Amino acid sequence: MAWSESVDTVLSNKEGLVAFRTFLKSEFSEENVEFWLACEDFKKTKSSTEIALKAQKIYSDFIQADAPKEINIDFHTKNDISQNISEPTLSCFDAAQSSIYCLMAKDSFPRFLRSEVYKELVKKHQDRNQKRWLPFL
Q1: pLDDT tens digits, residue range 96-105?
Q2: Which pLDDT value is given to residue 134?
Q3: Is 108 in contact with 32 (CB distance < 8 Å)?
Q4: Structural domain count, the chain
Q5: CA distances from residue 13 to 1, 24, 54, 76, 136 in whole angstroms, order as listed
Q6: Do the Cβ atoms of 112 and 20 come closer than 8 Å?
Q7: How far apart are CA 108 and CA 21, in angstroms?
Q8: Domain holding 50: CATH number?
Q9: What span, in angstroms and rounded, lies between the C-alpha atoms of 86 and 37?
Q10: Which domain holds residue 72?
Q11: Are 23 and 117 contacting, i.e. CB atoms less than 8 angstroms apart?
């Protein structure tokens, strides 16, 4: 399965992403993938008004102290974002996003590959592929 190759493969595949989110939810760390996805969406924003609105939403949801989905990032990264949130740029969350990506890739992803959620995903695809070829047997 290509999904086992990298966290990027899982994040870029709809079914893989759903399974990874389900797994992260079971580990009470779904905020990591939610933050990463919010940052990916944020980077595609064109209007300066939307940039400011989305940046504030990401900040209040994930970065500020006691945020409802607060992510675990180092003090310096959090402080840099806090100091610059009043004039956000499309790259203002890059360091935090990179940190969360590394956390998912090194910590969550290997556990995901050993999880029942992943095994079910692989089995579902194997069954689907097998059924696809059965009429020709």
Answers
A1: 999 999 999 9
A2: 45
A3: yes
A4: 1
A5: 12, 16, 24, 32, 28
A6: yes
A7: 11
A8: 1.10.167.10
A9: 22
A10: 2-133
A11: yes
